[in-house]
């Protein structure tokens, strides 16, 4: 079934997932924050604390009225701040876009989808539980699988490797472009552009 964001006049809540504080800032788990920082730089705004439990920035992304939000809770408690912010801004779950790291996608690759499971991602699990629905958009930023027998939970809490860091800025930029295309032209267009063959 085809899904697309509500009409252009409707506000979108764009959520980047990560863990707060400098200790985690370069972790794989924090790519959602990094992508939102890039989009904030593009629209020339700064995040401010909000009573919903997230740092927010109101602006226009791809011409669409958008609230950018970075939950101030830890990743596995993201749902409360996301639901609280959505309620405050009166945004329906079908107009929420979550940017997050994804183990089952190769490093730097992007996958966009609407709805579906959480695939073991604690941030998504918390959001789905708090919203009471799986029906929101996900922009999945590939971080790849951990090497050898490393625990995936440890892997996502490590910084990107030396080789990955060389490409990271470019990949963050590309992910921000994908978010803009999703908001401006819809899911199918963004999938056609950013899903690798």
TrEMBL record:
KW Phosphoprotein (keyword) present: no
GO cellular component: cytoplasm
Protein known as: Peptidyl-tRNA hydrolase
Record-annotated site: Discriminates between blocked and unblocked aminoacyl-tRNA: 19
Organism: Prauserella marina
E.C. number: 3.1.1.29
Reaction equations catalysed: an N-acyl-L-alpha-aminoacyl-tRNA + H2O = an N-acyl-L-amino acid + a tRNA + H(+)
Record's subunit section: Monomer.
């Amino acid at each position: 079934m085809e899904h697309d964001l509500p009409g252009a006049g409707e506000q979108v809540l764009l959520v980047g997932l990560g863990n707060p504080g400098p200790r985690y800032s370069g972790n794989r788990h924090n790519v959602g924050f990094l992508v939102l920082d890039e989009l904030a730089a593009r629209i020339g705004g700064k995040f401010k604390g909000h009573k919903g439990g997230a740092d927010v920035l109101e602006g226009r992304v791809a011409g669409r009225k958008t609230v950018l939000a970075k939950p101030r809770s830890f990743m596995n408690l993201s749902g409360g701040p996301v639901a609280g912010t959505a309620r405050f801004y009166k945004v329906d779950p079908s107009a929420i876009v979550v940017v997050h790291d994804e183990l089952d996608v190769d490093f730097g690759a992007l996958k966009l989808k609407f709805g579906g499971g959480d695939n073991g991602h604690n941030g998504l699990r918390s959001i789905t539980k708090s919203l009471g629905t799986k029906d929101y958009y996900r922009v999945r930023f590939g971080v790849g699988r951990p090497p050898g027998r490393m625990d995936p939970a440890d892997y996502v809490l490590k910084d990107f490797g030396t080789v990955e860091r060389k490409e990271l800025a470019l990949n963050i930029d590309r992910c921000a472009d994908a978010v803009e295309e999703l908001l401006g032209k819809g899911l199918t267009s963004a999938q056609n552009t950013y899903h690798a063959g």
